[in-house]
Each structure stands twice: as structure tokens, then as C-alpha cells.
DNA sequence: GCCAGCTCCGAAAACCTTTTCCGCCCGGGA
DNA sequence: TCCCGGGCGGAAAAGGTTTTCGGAGCTGGC
């Protein structure tokens, strides 16, 4: 059933088992399996045959021990449950998987103790590097000293200037969003944001304000800060329509807020996008495509951010360390909730 | 700056470095650090001091090599992007994290080749066990033979009867949902499901049908199969109201479908929950709490499922293997969209 | 026939830790 | 003073792999 390799519990075949079966030394078996020179093709074939027969799988622990590199990295998230860690994680996993690197996943659940604990374990396992994924774009404390492997911070930058961090360009994103609305011919643009305590919210607002000002336009009303929820979107939109009924576009702090805004607009009989254009943030696929009309949104390219972080970590491992904060461009994904004024 | 341990690139301190600094042999150093007997307390203190000074961290690779177990497990998902893998993964990570087990995360992206590749890598890294997380509750092929570590299948059961699988009890969930609606005094209950190709959809329907029959009730209309989207929910609800306006409760295949149903009910002037109760499935927090009214939903307890899978894997590693399919109970989370008829 | 040179293979060290077993030294008792 | 025992520390092996270096065997040329 389980093939000639024997069933579960049988000790895994080792290189010297293979060598014995092939009638050669371990050294020769190693060279044969690794494609080294100075092995006769007949011998090589015999070794390969023996290895296949025993379903030999080289022990990476031994290889790593000898090589001084484990071919593993640690991915340390502070909040897996959040929506932003996952795509980053996927991008990183993707980039590493291609390069034969295995990934240790650790979730600190926002707890510093737990984080130290995980870091300690990873160091002990001799990971070649570490990616630290934050749960918001606010700067976070650097890892404790004594971690002498390369570290790349993703999403949340490190507070220490000497570290390398990869973050989305939220200022540019705010600018981009406004530019899209302007391109749609809108000029009375309001901004319903999310939680003011998040730098992501403030940065987007700053970018948007900059773009408006450059276009010589005044924002409609104050920027409305609140929470990242549909409920807030509904409430803030109601207030907005009461105070500034002339509004012809609403930029929202997140897709959820935008959903709430859409709800209120529909209740008040405003057509989207004909009367009012609505734009979200984060491009959360199911939310953005589930709404009526589908939601134009800004995508932070988080998967690409994860891939970039992974590549940066590769470089750092290969002794080409970088430092500072690198920002990644966002992109506007256009759907039905924004359209040119006719 | 980086402390006495030396900066990045300096070879990590080894046990013999510690021994040398403490003026003892490696054997003694090992015993001292591991709390073994036959070490004088003065000696032990000296060793501990030396270890701290060098910020010594034992090399897990060497330990694993010697011990014959690595203290690592593989978590193999077929679809990380899906909504169901993540909670399972978190539960498992949680259960393992408590022990001293590290988790390798691999995403096969639904590709069998990629999956084999990952399994091969994990075997080579000598993981002590494997959890395979499927993307739907439909049975999936077992891992290839030749994997001689324990494997637990989560969410999607293995097709091979000898394997151990942990899956949510969707039949029971369907039953539970109906029982809740009955308890609310509803008797004209329709079911708008998701994609018929998913056993999750069919199982929930079967459970719901059984509960209705036991209550001596006829379902309102046929079960409507479609897709797992808001759009489908809106469309199906429209049809339902046209054909069976007497309906007083709608059980939906997912929270997204339920959102769509809520939309249509609102458009048609039906009050929820006064006129019609609506119930979702999956208890997707942001979706369920973002809607108006908030959505009663069935939670599959996926995090608990992940924890259970992890514990089962522990048992299997400790030579207490189990087999067959174990189902996990679901639970109803009651919110505003269902309430007793007044 | 002998030697040079090339091809192929094997012995051994290295990576780092744990554990077993042995030996040393010191104190106490005869 | 001698012996014994107990307490403490050290040498060495084991775990599996890679690499280096040396050596064996064979062929071809003189």
C-alpha cells in the first residue's frame, strides 16, 4: 500500500541507507543526488534508483545545520484577523514559495509578550530573516535588539530609522482618488473618512486635500472622521446631505463607509453615480462588487507589497541591506459608482 | 549598540562559546542550561551568566536533528484568499503556539502540482505532522502516499476513509437555523441557498428540510440555488416575493446572500424582522453587523475547528491516531434580523 | 613492462546539541 | 593513613548531510 518505503512510523530513509542499497559510499550518494561532478553516469543512475526505491527525502535539518542557513523565514503578524495582513502574507508566501523558502507563520495577536516569545522561537529555529506585518499603517516599535537576522517591516513601518519598512502610499492614494473624481467632472467633493486615530485616515485626507487645493477647489464641508463602519457611513452621509445638498461626489475612508454612504444616498433618492459619485478605499472585493452600483475603490496593492517585502528580505539576506521607508503605489479600480458627469 | 552579542553577521553564539566563557565543558553547559542534575549551583550560575552575556539561543536545528522530531507542523491550505481558511488557521496557530510548536504555512492556491511541491518540502523539513485545510466542505483527494507523518484534514474531509477529518456539521446547522425561525413563531419559511455544486449548500438545505418536516411544515416555494453573492440574494428575493408573498422568514445560504435579500425586502417595503425574518450563514462579522438590521447568522465555529484539528494532530503525533470524519457543532448568533412574531 | 595522468570513489571532518558513561576529587569513616 | 563513596565535571558518540582531499584503478604512450 504505502509503497516499498514502509509504513508510518518506520524511520525515514537516510542517505546512508540509499548508499548502502546502491553499493556506494554516502559521499558518492550525496554527489550523485546533487548533480555533482566526478560520478560515473552508471553509478549515478544506481543511486537515483535506490533513492526512489526508498522514497528518500534529504533531511533539511541536517542540511541547514551544515550550511548555516535554514532556508526559512518568519512571518510575524500582529493581527491576522484584520483584513490587511492576509493579502500581504499571501504575496510574501508567493514570493518565498517560488524561491524554495519555507515560511513560519506567527500571530502575536497584538500582544508584545507573545511577540517576543515568537521572535525568540524563530531565532532559535535559525530563520534567515523576518517580515513583521503590522495591523495599521501607524509606526510600531522595532523588534528587540539581539535579533541578528535581517528584518523587513511591512504595512506598519518601524519606529527605528535604521530599519527597512515597506508601506502603502496613502497620501498618493488620497491624491489619486481626488484626481479620478475630478476627471469625472466632479467639483463639489466631500470626504467622509474613518477613524482619525489612524494615520491611514489622516494621510489619505492630506493627499486628497492637496489634490483639491491644486485644482483650485474647496472641499465640501469638513472632513468627517468617525469609525470604519457602514453605520458611520450612513450617519455621516445623512449629515452631509442636510448641510451640503449640492455635493456631487463623496470620497470615503473605506469600502465599508462607502457602503453606508450608498445606503443613505439611495434612501434620500440620490442616484449614484448620476447625481453623486461615491468612491471607497481598500478595494475589498466582496464588499465593492456586492454593492449597488459596484464600488469604485482605491486598491493598496497589498499582495504586491508583500511580494516586495519578501524580495527586499531576500536582498538583505544576500547582504544587500536597505533602510528607510519605501512606499508602494496604490491604484484606482473603477466600477459603477463613479462616472463622468453627462 | 546591538549589545555584547555583536552585530549582525557575527556568527551566532554556540554552546561551546558559552562553555568556554564559563570555563566548563559543553556537556556541563548543556546540563546547566537545561536544568539537569549533577551541576553545582555555582557552576550553573556561571553558565547562565555566560549564556546571557552572549545572548545564547540554542540551535533548534541541532536539537531537532538529535531528537528526531522538529517541533514543527505544516499547515497546507488550498485557498488562503477564501474566507474560511483564515479562522481555521488562526485556531490551529493558537493551539500550536501554546505548545512549543512552530507552524509552516503553505498555500497551494488550488493547484495540485504546487501542493505536492509543498508537501515534499515539508516532509524534507521533517515536520511532525500536517493539517490540510480545504476551501470547501466537499471531499478532497488524500495526500499522496509516502507522507509518513500524521495528517489531519480540516473543513474539507479526505476522500480516503482511513484519514481523520474535522468538518463543520452543516446538516445540523441547517436544522438549527430552522429551529430558531420556528422558535420565532415563523411558519412560512423560504430558503434561498447558494451554489448547488457545494455540499455545504446541499447539506444545509437537507438539514433545514428535515427540521421543517419534523415540524409538520411545508417549505415556501422551492429551494432557490444560485451563487454565493449579494446579487443572487437580491434577484432570488424578488422572485420569491412575486410568487409567495405570504413568506414570513427567509433562510439564506450565506451572509452575502442575506444582504441581498435584505436589500430587496427593503425596496419592496417589507419590514425586517417584523414582517419577514432573515437569517444568514457563516456569521461573517463585518457583513453581519454592517447590515440594517444586523443579521442573525449561523457560525461554523471555524476557529474552534482549527483548534480541534491541532489537538487531534497532537494526539496523532503522540501515537494516538484517530480516523473517520468528526463533525463540529455550529451555533446560531442572534441579531436584529430575526425576532419573535408579536 | 612501466609510468603518467585521468576518472571515479571513499574516508573523514564539520555543523551543534544532548546524553551516557566514566573519572576525578574531596570528605568522611575505619 | 588508607579506602570508599558521593558529588560534580568531562569525553565521546549520535543524529544526517556536504565537501574536501586523498587514493585506487585503469588507460595510453613510450
CATH fourth-tier homologous superfamily of the largest domain in chain A: Response regulator
- Give the quaternary arrangement of the chains: homodimer
Percent of residues in β-strands of chain A: 5-15%
Name the helicity range of chain A: 40-55%
Radius of gyration of chain A: 27 Å
- Average pLDDT of chain A: 93
How many strands, what sense, and barrel or not for the largest sheet of chain A? 6 strands, parallel
SSE succession of chain A: HHHHEHEHEEEHEHHEHEHEHEE
Summarize this entry quickly.
The structure is a homodimer of 342-residue chains. By secondary structure, chain A is of the alpha/beta class.
Task: Give an overview of the whole structure.
Two copies of one chain form a homodimer. The first copy, chain A, is of the alpha/beta class and 342 residues long. Chain A folds into three domains: 15-58, 434 Repressor (Amino-terminal Domain) (Orthogonal Bundle), CATH 1.10.260; 70-168 and 302-329, Response regulator (Rossmann fold), CATH 3.40.50.2300; 170-299, Rossmann fold (3-Layer(aba) Sandwich). Chain A has twelve helices and eleven strands. Chain A has a six-stranded parallel sheet with strand order 2-1-3-4-5-10, sandwiched between helices. Chain A has a five-stranded mixed sheet with strand order 6-7-8-9-11, sandwiched between helices. In chain A, helix 10 (255-267) links the parallel strand 7 and strand 8 (277-281). In chain A, helix 5 packs across helix 12. The longest helix of chain A has 16 residues, at 199-214. Chain A starts with 14 loop residues before the first helix and ends in a 9-residue tail after the last strand. Mean pLDDT of chain A is 93; it is low at 1-7. Chains A and B meet through helix 4, helix 5, strand 2, helix 6 and helix 9 of A and helix 4, helix 5, strand 2, helix 6 and helix 9 of B. Strand 2 of chain A pairs antiparallel with strand 2 (102-107) of chain B. The structure holds a DNA duplex (30 and 30 nucleotides).
Amino acid at each position: 500500500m504505502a509503497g516499498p518505503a514502509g509504513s508510518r512510523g518506520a524511520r525515514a530513509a537516510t542517505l546512508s541507507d540509499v548508499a548502502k542499497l546502491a553499493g556506494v559510499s554516502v559521499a558518492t550518494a550525496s554527489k550523485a543526488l546533487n548533480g555533482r561532478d566526478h560520478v560515473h553516469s552508471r553509478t549515478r543512475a544506481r543511486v537515483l534508483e535506490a533513492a526512489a526505491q526508498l522514497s528518500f527525502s534529504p533531511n533539511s535539518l541536517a542540511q541547514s545545520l551544515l550550511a548555516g542557513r535554514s532556508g526559512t523565514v518568519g512571518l510575524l503578524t500582529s493581527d491576522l484577523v484584520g483584513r490587511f495582513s492576509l493579502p500581504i502574507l499571501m504575496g510574501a508566501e508567493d514570493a518565498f514559495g517560488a524561491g524554495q523558502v519555507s515560511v513560519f507563520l506567527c500571530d502575536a495577536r497584538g500582544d508584545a509578550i507573545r511577540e517576543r516569545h515568537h521572535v525568540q522561537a524563530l531565532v532559535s529555529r535559525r530563520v534567515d530573516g523576518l517580515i513583521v506585518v503590522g495591523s495599521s499603517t501607524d509606526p510600531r516599535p522595532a523588534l528587540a535588539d539581539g535579533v541578528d537576522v535581517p528584518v523587513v517591516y511591512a504595512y506598519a513601518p518601524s519606529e527605528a530609522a535604521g530599519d527597512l519598512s515597506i508601506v502603502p502610499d496613502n497620501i498618493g492614494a488620497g491624491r489619486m482618488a481626488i484626481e479620478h473624481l475630478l476627471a469625472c467632472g466632479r467639483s463639489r467633493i466631500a470626504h467622509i473618512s474613518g477613524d482619525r486615530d489612524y494615520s491611514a485616515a489622516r494621510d489619505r485626507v492630506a493627499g486628497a486635500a492637496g489634490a483639491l487645493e491644486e485644482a483650485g477647489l474647496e472641499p465640501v464641508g469638513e472632513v468627517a472622521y468617525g469609525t470604519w463602519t457602514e453605520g458611520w457611513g450612513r450617519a455621516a452621509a445623512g449629515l452631509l446631505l442636510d448641510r451640503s445638498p449640492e455635493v456631487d461626489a463623496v470620497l470615503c475612508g473605506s469600502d465599508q463607509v462607502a457602503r453606508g454612504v450608498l445606503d443613505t444616498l439611495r434612501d434620500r433618492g440620490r442616484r449614484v453615480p448620476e447625481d453623486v459619485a461615491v468612491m471607497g478605499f481598500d478595494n475589498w472585493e466582496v464588499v465593492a462588487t456586492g454593492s449597488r452600483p459596484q464600488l469604485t475603490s482605491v486598491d493598496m496593492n497589498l499582495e504586491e507589497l508583500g511580494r516586495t517585502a519578501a524580495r527586499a528580505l531576500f536582498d538583505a539576506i544576500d547582504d544587500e541591506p536597505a533602510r528607510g521607508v519605501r512606499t508602494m503605489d496604490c491604484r484606482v479600480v473603477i466600477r459603477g459608482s463613479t462616472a463622468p458627469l453627462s
